[in-house]
Design a protein that fits this description.
- The chain is mainly α.
- It contains 5 helices and no strands.
- Helix 3 packs antiparallel against helix 4 and helix 4 runs antiparallel to helix 5.
- It is extended and about 55 Å long.
- Pfam families: AzlD.
Length: about 110
C-alpha cells in the first residue's frame, strides 16, 4: 500500500510541475542565468544515470578494470562523441563496443 501512495505522490508532483509550466507558458520569463543553467539539465541527468551504471555495474564497489564491459563501452562512446558530435553514432559505437567487449571478456 505504501508503494501505491508513493507512486501517486510522485505522479501528482510531476503533474503539478509540468502543468504549471505548460499553463503559464510564455508568461514565465526566466533570467538569462537560469535559462543557461536549464540548458545543462539533460546532460547532467544523463550523466547522473549513466556513470554509476558504468562504474559499478553490479552495485557495490567500483569496477575500474578492463574487464568491465560497461565502462569500456562508455569510454568508447565518450571518445566517439568528443570526435564526431553525432549522438546516433555515439550510441551505436558504445553499444557495439559493449557487446563485443562482453563477448570477449565472458569467453
Amino acid at each position: 500500500m505504501s508503494y501505491v501512495v508513493l507512486i501517486l505522490g510522485m505522479a501528482i508532483v510531476t503533474f503539478l510541475i509540468r502543468s504549471t509550466v505548460f499553463l503559464l507558458g510564455e508568461r514565465i520569463v526566466f533570467p538569462p542565468l537560469v535559462r543557461t543553467a536549464l540548458g545543462f539539465v539533460p546532460v547532467t541527468v544523463l550523466t547522473a544515470i549513466i556513470v554509476p551504471m558504468a562504474v559499478t555495474p553490479h552495485g557495490g564497489a567500483p569496477e575500474l578494470t578492463w574487464r568491465n564491459p560497461q565502462l569500456v563501452g562508455a569510454l568508447a562512446a565518450c571518445a566517439v562523441s568528443a570526435v564526431t558530435r553525432r549522438p546516433l553514432l555515439t550510441i551505436a559505437v558504445g553499444l557495439a563496443v559493449f557487446f563485443a567487449w562482453q563477448g570477449l571478456v565472458m569467453h
